[in-house]
Design goal:
heterodimer, A: 275 residues, mainly alpha, 9 helices, B: 121 residues, alpha+beta, Immunoglobulin-like, five-stranded mixed beta sheet, elongated
């Protein structure tokens, strides 16, 4: 039961951090609960499908199917997160003003909610597929799910969801006027971390091997497999032994997001000069 | 909506940067390394066979794992930074970049009692 609990908890915990951030980012926006729930449901469905087709998927691309798939969906999530930040840079000022004036939920562009719902779906799919594979594997091997395994998995799910809730509650205590800046920063670092993770998969599959030397080793300070390390890994992409390529892609992602946000942001209103 | 508000030179700069980035990344790709050290493991009775493997320092390593258990496993290592599902009856390969001397741990993430070590002298 404990093994089942820990495995499920670890995966749900990582997805939970991302879902919690998305919930906080969209706080106050009408209809966002439905979009996020939809993202989670799509992710769960996707996880079951991926688990079902793992055998076939694994053999694609000369045996690198899993890595190509993971790198692909992570990259897509990076694009969605970038889109969201750019969209908010464009429209965020109007939204914030409306929120303060009207004091009630504003209907945000559905495109931005869709982008975040996709990110939620990808996060749930990534972590969820491992949970499904594990639980199904154990159930099949023992000739049926034992109560211990089911209970452990269920508790792991509850605890992981608690992480999601705590992340959300923690973030929404931030005053509204700072929230945009904080969440945009969080999303940028989340995207950079996912991009570096995508690189890691490509390196693992020998598809991208340039600059694969380890630049530094901070595993003695914080191992990225500890719980705190995993949390930082998900939130900002912390890796205790980053390769040069990972660092470059990480920095490049942050730079591109910042540049695009600047490029597309609404210019400040020019005050008329008095003579 | 955004596009026709955008002055053309900004778009050109953005597109150029993006294309350059893609080009730079693609320069790093290459076909399977032929001079990688090849190691083979088998997962049987929830154990790695062999439980300890060796590789020389400074050479890329290809680790092949065949799953002869009756249950799917996840071949993973925190030390070596890889994770890959090994379907029942299948063989998968993970590539590890050249290593410094050391003793690196790997395991089956779905069955933590299953542990192994890669020793680089």
């Amino acid at each position: 039961m404990l093994a089942s609990l820990l495995i499920v908890f670890r995966e749900v915990f990582e997805a939970g951090l991302i879902v919690g951030i998305v919930m906080a980012v969209t706080s106050g926006v009408a209809g966002r609960g439905l979009w996020i729930a939809g993202g989670v449901a799509a992710g769960v469905l996707g996880a079951c499908l991926v688990a079902l087709f793992t055998g076939g998927l694994s053999e694609l691309f000369g045996g690198s199917g899993q890595e190509v798939f993971n790198a692909g969906i992570l990259s897509f999530a990076v694009i969605m997160l970038t889109w969201h930040n750019v969209w908010m840079a464009r429209h965020g000022r109007e939204l914030a003003a409306e929120l303060q004036a009207a004091g009630e939920a504003v209907v945000a562009g559905s495109k931005s909610l869709l982008a975040l719902a996709i990110v939620v779906a990808i996060a749930v799919l990534r972590e969820g597929s491992e949970v499904v594979l594990f639980l199904y594997g154990v159930a099949a091997a023992q000739g049926g799910a034992s109560w211990g395994m089911v209970a452990g998995g269920f508790i792991g799910l509850i605890l992981g969801s608690l992480v999601c809730l705590l992340t959300y509650l923690g973030l929404i205590t931030i005053p509204a006027r700072y929230l945009f800046g904080v969440t945009s920063t969080l999303i940028a670092f989340l995207a950079a971390g996912l991009a570096a993770q995508a690189i890691s998969f490509l390196q693992q599959a020998d598809i991208l091997t340039a600059l694969d030397e380890t630049v530094w080793d901070t595993s003695w300070i914080l191992s990225d497999s500890s719980y705190l390390g995993r949390a930082l890994h998900t939130l900002i992409g912390y890796v205790d032994q980053p390769t040069a390529m990972q660092l470059i892609v990480y920095a490049a992602t942050l730079t591109v997001i910042a540049a695009l946000m600047k490029l597309f942001s609404t210019p400040a209103v020019q005050r008329p000069r008095t003579a | 909506m955004i596009w026709h508000n955008l002055p053309n030179d900004r778009l050109r700069i953005g597109a150029t940067v993006f294309a350059a980035a893609l080009l730079a990344l693609s320069a790093g790709t290459r076909v399977r390394a032929d001079d990688a050290v090849s190691l083979s493991l088998v997962l049987k009775n929830h154990q790695f066979d062999p439980a300890e493997v060796h590789a020389p320092p400074g050479k890329q390593i290809a680790i092949h794992v065949k799953n002869l258990n009756d249950i799917v496993s996840e071949f993973e290592s925190s030390d070596l930074h890889f994770e890959k599902i090994v379907p029942v009856g299948s063989e998968i390969t993970v590539y590890v970049h050249p290593l410094q001397p050391g003793r690196y741990n790997f395991y089956d993430d779905f069955h933590h009692a299953t542990q192994g070590y890669l020793v680089v002298p």
